[in-house]
From TrEMBL:
<dbReference type="InterPro" id="IPR023074">
    <property type="entry name" value="HMG_CoA_Rdtase_cat_sf"/>
</dbReference>
<dbReference type="InterPro" id="IPR002202">
    <property type="entry name" value="HMG_CoA_Rdtase"/>
</dbReference>
<protein>
    <recommendedName>
        <fullName>3-hydroxy-3-methylglutaryl coenzyme A reductase</fullName>
        <ecNumber>1.1.1.88</ecNumber>
    </recommendedName>
</protein>
<keyword id="KW-0614">Plasmid</keyword>
<keyword id="KW-0520">NAD</keyword>
<comment type="pathway">
    <text>Metabolic intermediate metabolism; (R)-mevalonate degradation; (S)-3-hydroxy-3-methylglutaryl-CoA from (R)-mevalonate: step 1/1.</text>
</comment>
<dbReference type="GO" id="GO:0140643">
    <property type="term" value="F:hydroxymethylglutaryl-CoA reductase (NADH) activity"/>
</dbReference>
<comment type="similarity">
    <text>Belongs to the HMG-CoA reductase family.</text>
</comment>
<dbReference type="InterPro" id="IPR009029">
    <property type="entry name" value="HMG_CoA_Rdtase_sub-bd_dom_sf"/>
</dbReference>
<keyword id="KW-0560">Oxidoreductase</keyword>
<dbReference type="GO" id="GO:0004420">
    <property type="term" value="F:hydroxymethylglutaryl-CoA reductase (NADPH) activity"/>
</dbReference>
<dbReference type="InterPro" id="IPR004553">
    <property type="entry name" value="HMG_CoA_Rdtase_bac-typ"/>
</dbReference>
<dbReference type="InterPro" id="IPR009023">
    <property type="entry name" value="HMG_CoA_Rdtase_NAD(P)-bd_sf"/>
</dbReference>
<dbReference type="Pfam" id="PF00368">
    <property type="entry name" value="HMG-CoA_red"/>
</dbReference>
<dbReference type="GO" id="GO:0015936">
    <property type="term" value="P:coenzyme A metabolic process"/>
</dbReference>
Length: 442
């Protein structure tokens, strides 16, 4: 090994962690200590708050926090907070919002809000025997055993909606599931769901042990493998859409509304049938979704996993968005499965998360679902609009221009020169370097 392993790293104070890292991995270079410390917050209490969000924290990692204004969603005008580092995401979303604001804006529908979790277990018993036990005894006991856990959630209108026994023995010997659906109201609900499921596992074990339905050999075969929520929530889904008459699709690229609609629909259809395109297409959707998910303190990894699983639900990975141009009407929509919360987790702790939720009017979880679906749809519209007209690089590289200039150490005066220089040109890295060198030589 090229480095020594360490015992008790988590028990070291923050400065101790930093000194060990710098000495062990960075040749004792103090500049790296300075890099870490310059991102500490001057407010010691706020810094401590951030450090306690995770483990072994030694600094803060900043991301740009931008605003996409002019989103008309279900009659309400909103400005969306977006935490994202990729050039042109906020600009594309903002441009799409502005495009649709005078065409009725975005409309949303909450299709369902059910979330799922499973107790996965192995049981060497005849399926019909287990099903009888579940229907006539176990199911009732599972509800009763979790009454204390679900009490507060039921007062808020949520709780356990249903529990089913799933026979998976055709796919894996002796494998069954207790599949439960939940309504967690305004919380994402992961801790609540997992607490219920862990109780399911305990109750299943207890009830099998005392049941007269099974032999001792069968009882001994029971193995609770795991109790865990699923981040795939195909029944927690929201639809966001835009529509207008075809002739209203006037675009500043110079092509006719009819040609724009035709090319746009073709682009969506390609993403519906071609996985290579669908992957990039949906990545663009998630640019918009994740930026708001992060800004509101929700779990973007769960969001991503769920969206991509849903995109492949019929056996082939496909577009999350869809388009029709029937009877002279252009319609573009997304059905997005997404599970988010506005209480619990970081939502009551992180100052910028609290700011984001206040900016959005302190939405309910369902309202936030709608906002997220709209953000994804807008981002996808903006990307496709560029792709089928001017091409994606013209706008993207203009936004990337400042990144290139910052790498070159350009002054503010030089940056302004480049903005003017590329006003009617497509930005390329090669051309930026050439012009920068020419400018510096004069």
């Amino acid at each position: 090994m090229n480095h020594k392993p360490i015992e008790g790293f988590s028990k070291l104070p923050k400065q101790g962690k930093i000194e060990w890292l710098v000495n062990e991995y960075l040749e004792g270079n103090q500049e790296y200590q300075n890099i870490l410390k310059q991102y500490w917050n001057d407010d010691a209490d706020l810094q401590k708050l951030h450090e306690e969000f995770s483990e072994n924290t030694i600094s803060n990692f900043y991301m740009p926090y931008g605003i996409a204004p002019n989103f008309l969603i279900d009659g309400k005008l909103l400005a969306l907070p977006m935490a994202v580092e990729e050039s042109s995401v906020v600009a594309a979303a903002s441009k799409a919002a502005k495009f649709w604001i005078d065409k009725g804006g975005f409309k949303t529908t909450i299709i369902n809000t059910e979330k799922l979790g499973h107790t996965h277990f192995i049981f060497n018993v005849e399926p019909h025997k287990l099903l009888h036990f579940f229907n006539f005894s176990l199911k009732k006991k599972l509800f009763e055993a979790t009454e204390d856990i679900t009490s507060n959630m039921r007062k808020r209108g949520g709780g356990i909606l249903n529990i089913n026994l799933i026979d998976k023995t055709a796919e894996m010997p002796n494998y069954y599931q207790l599949k439960a659906s939940f309504d967690t109201v305004d919380s994402m609900g992961a801790n609540f769901i997992n607490s219920c499921l862990e109780q399911f596992g305990k109750t299943l074990r207890q009830e099998v042990a005392t049941s007269e339905d099974f032999t001792q050999e069968e009882k001994n075969s029971l193995q609770i493998v795991m109790n865990i929520l699923s981040n795939f929530t195909p029944d927690c889904i929201v639809r966001a859409e835009v529509s207008c008459k075809m002739e209203d699709l006037k675009d500043d690229s110079g092509i006719s509304p009819e040609e724009f609609a035709y090319k746009f629909k073709q682009a969506v259809t390609i993403a519906e049938i071609e996985p290579y395109r669908a992957t990039t297409h949906n990545k663009g959707v998630m640019n918009g979704v994740d930026a708001v998910v992060i800004a509101t303190g929700n779990d973007f990894r769960a969001t991503e996993a769920c969206a991509h699983a849903y995109a492949a639900k019929d056996g082939q990975y496909r577009s999350l968005t869809h388009c029709t141009t029937d009877n002279g009407v252009f319609r573009f929509w997304i059905d997005l499965p997404i599970s988010v919360g506005v209480v619990g987790g970081l939502t009551n702790l992180h100052p910028l998360v609290k700011f984001s939720l206040a900016l959005l009017g302190k939405p309910s979880a369902q309202e936030l679902m709608s906002i997220l679906a709209v953000s994804g749809l807008a981002q996808n519209f903006g990307a496709l609009r560029s792709l089928v007209t001017t091409g994606i690089q013209k706008g993207h590289m203009k936004m990337h221009l400042l990144n290139i200039l910052n790498q070159l150490g350009a002054t503010e005066e030089e940056k302004q020169h480049f903005v003017t220089y590329f006003k009617d040109k497509t930005v390329s890295h090669h051309e930026v370097i050439n012009e920068f060198n020419r400018l510096r030589e004069n």
